[in-house]
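pinging the channel bc i need a second pair of eyes. not urgent but kinda urgent?? the chain im working w is below, pasted from the shared doc
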Amino acid sequence: MTERLDGPQDPPAETAGGPSTGPAETPRTQRRLGPSPVVAIAFLLPAALLLGIWVVYPIVYSIFRSLFDANGTGFVGLGNYTTIFSDPATFTTIRNNLIWVVVAPIVVTTLGLIFAVLTERIKWATAFKLIVFMPMAVSLMAAGVIFRLVYEEDPDKGLANAILTTVHDTFSSSQGYPEARPREGDQSQVAAQNGAVVTKQPAQAGQPVLIPIVGVKPAVMPGNAQPAKAPPAGNELSGTVWFDFTPGGGGQSGAVDGTEKGLPGMTVEAVQNGQVAGTATTADDGTFRFQGLPAGSYVVRLPQSNFQAAYGGLTWLGPTLITPAIIGAFVWVWAGFAMVLIAAGLSAIPRDALEAARIDGATEWQVFRRITVPLLSPVLLVVFVTMIINTLKVFDLVFIIAPPSVQPQSNVVALEMWRVAFGGGNNQGLGSALAIFLLILVLPFMIMNIRRFRRESS
């Protein structure tokens, strides 16, 4: 007989009391990964407590304090906020902050992008990045002190004007002698005319022209001035311009004495028929000579520019240039930060895309504009928003660089807040309102950053 295959069979082993290999464990028996909520709260509580003490409480109290007057006893409601938008000085402050927000982040981001791209093409890129990034190691207060010295108006002290005057003097050889004038008298060969000094009679080659000058202050006498000499005889129109004054008295008026000094760097013109036929410059001993001048009679003239003050550069710390000057210091500090962030983003760009564009015939400018910049847009946005927040908080540079006389023209919201509340105004109600106003200005950019971080992490 054959065995039936469809008859009753033994139950599976797991149903006969053996170990279970069925469905997974119920949620009650699952083990939690990571620390429990109690442990997490215990670790977060100190940070949350400090955050509440240092951030939340000051914000809440500032909102409350901004609703009261300077003494904190009289409730004024939104009166302090009304003052912010009705005071002309505050309008200047808001205007300056607008200039900061528009100009500084654009300049910093642009320079950082240029530096990051160019450093990829040089061998000493690391040294250059170190030099550009080094100002980040300097506090803003120290940077303010440095640039206060850089912007000194005296070229002997301020680096900015020292550079400007050096460049100017390279292309202009005139030496300013303010308040100098020709010696008056019937014996003098020259006279003043419309701010210039001209010879009374036309001069010809072989007839030395003597131009005595008085009224030269010791402070403007050049250090390279040598004892004046009479012009040597020759077939060219020549002469001497000198300081006709003998220290201690003596000497002969209108004559070149050995103890009198020439006036170097003066521009001398030979004029014929109202037109300038030739130009010369006095040497250290005051002598001048016209070379290649056609024969004839000429009026020798010292133009008015000789008697104006020498170029001393720009008034960086004046009302007109104070805000751009401080923005320049801000750019000096933060350009290295922008360069490092953008360089990090640049190193993450796939080189295949750049090389493919070059192979297809794209120029370097097209590669930069259509590939590099779009791929760097997230990093550029981070740098730009960070710079906006920093410009809204700027305080140290304005306080240190701007002299007290021009601080009203360079004021920003952060400095105005300190000045009103603690710097002599003693109006903490208005100061708290300015602090809340500044917080409201910063919040949109902070929210923008937070949303961007969430999008990247999702």
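so The chain is about 45% helix and 10% strand. and The beta strands are 181-182, 190-193, 196-199, 209-214, 238-243, 267-272, 275-281, 287-289, 299-302. — does that match what u expected or am i reading it wrong
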